[in-house]
DNA sequence: TCTGAACCTTCCCATCGTGGTAAGGTCAAG
DNA sequence: CTTGACCTTACCACGATGGGAAGGTTCAGA
C-alpha cells in the first residue's frame, strides 16, 4: 500500500511517517519503480505501534527503545518495565505540576466576583505572589 | 539595573527578557548610553508578573492579555476571570489526558513481572491495542 | 487517447518556549 | 592597562507537528 493508505490505516499522518523515516525511527520503506513508498502489513503494524505509544505519551526516543525491545526476541521484560515505570514517573510529575497550577488558579478565581468592576483578587493575588520572588 | 540583575531578581533569564521584548510582550527597555538595557523597579515588577504567570502555565499570548488587563485601570474583573477559567479548563483537559495515560500504563506495568524473560504483557498489551486502530 | 483529479515526491518554513554559542563592545577593579 | 564579568546582536538547536510550494505518477472517465 502507498503512504496515504498506511497513514489512514495507522493513524499516523503521511507527513509524520516520512519524518519518522528521516530521523531513523522507521527503517526506510520499500519503493515502487516510480519512487513511491510501499508499505506491508508488517510495516502497518509498526506504524500502529508508534501511534499507540505516542498516544500513551512516550517521546520518539522512548518509542525507538520500545520498538527495539518489541522486535528483540531476547529482551528482558525488566527493561520494558523500567522504561515504562520511568515514563509513569514523568507523567506523575507533570500531573502534579498541572494540578498545583490548577489549585492555585481555582482558589484565585473563586475569590473573583467576575463583574464589570476592576477589583480583581486574581490579579492582586498574582501581583502579591510576585513580591516573593528571588 | 542591567539585564543580568533584572534576570536574577525576577527569575526570568536574560535570554528570555530579550526574547519577550523582541516579540512585543515587553515594551522596549530604556537604554544606557552604551546601549545596555536598563530596568526600573516597575519593570522588575512586570518581569516578576511574567515569571509568576508562566509558572501558572499561561502561554505568552495569554500573559500578554493578562498584562494588558493588569495595567488597565478600567478593566472588568470578568475578563480576567474568563481568561483564567479557560486556562483552568485547558489544565483540566491536559490533566485528564495524562491521567488516562498513567492509568493505562500502570495497569500494563503491574501485569509485567519485570524479569529476565522476554514475555511482556506491556508489549503484548500495546500490540493488541494496535489492532483496534482505524 | 487525452485530461483532470488524486495521489506521490522532496524541500523549506512555522509553531512554542527555551537554551547555546559566536563575535564583538563596555565597564570596573586590580 | 589588563582582566574578567558583564552586555550587545545574530544565528542555530531542541521536539513533534503542520503547511505549502513545485514537480512527478497513476488511474478513471470522456
Main features:
134 residues, mainly alpha, Multidrug-efflux Transporter Regulator, Chain: A, Domain 2, two-stranded antiparallel ribbon, 6 helices, 3% strand, DNA-binding
Structure description:
The structure is a homodimer of 134-residue chains. With 134 residues, chain A is an all-alpha fold. Chain A folds into two domains: 1-75, Multidrug-efflux Transporter Regulator, Chain: A, Domain 2 (Orthogonal Bundle); 76-134. Helices cover 66% and strands 3% of the residues of chain A. Chain A is built from six helices and two strands, in the order ααββαααα. The first copy, chain A, has helices at residues 3-10, 14-22, 41-55, 60-71, 77-110, 121-131, and strands at 30-31, 37-38. Chain A has a two-stranded antiparallel sheet with strand order 1-2. In chain A, strand 1 and strand 2 (37-38) form a beta hairpin. In chain A, helix 1 packs across helix 3 (41-55). The longest helix of chain A is centred in the last third of the chain and has 34 residues, at 77-110. At the A-B interface, helix 1, helix 3, helix 4, helix 5 and helix 6 of A face helix 1, helix 3, helix 4, helix 5 and helix 6 of B. The structure holds a DNA duplex (30 and 30 nucleotides).
Amino acid at each position: 500500500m502507498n503512504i496515504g493508505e498506511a497513514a489512514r490505516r495507522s493513524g499516523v499522518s503521511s507527513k509524520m511517517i516520512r519524518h519518522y523515516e528521516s530521523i531513523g525511527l522507521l527503517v526506510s520503506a520499500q519503493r515502487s519503480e516510480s519512487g513511491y513508498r510501499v508499505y506491508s502489513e508488517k510495516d502497518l503494524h509498526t506504524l500502529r505501534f508508534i501511534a499507540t505509544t505516542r498516544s500513551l505519551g512516550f517521546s520518539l526516543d522512548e518509542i525507538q527503545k520500545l520498538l527495539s525491545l518489541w522486535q528483540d526476541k531476547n529482551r528482558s521484560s525488566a527493561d520494558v518495565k523500567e522504561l515504562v515505570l520511568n515514563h509513569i514517573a514523568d507523567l506523575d510529575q507533570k500531573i502534579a505540576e498541572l494540578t498545583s497550577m490548577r489549585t492555585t488558579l481555582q482558589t484565585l478565581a473563586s475569590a473573583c466576583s467576575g463583574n464589570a468592576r476592576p477589583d480583581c483578587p486574581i490579579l492582586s493575588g498574582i501581583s502579591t505572589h510576585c513580591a516573593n520572588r528571588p
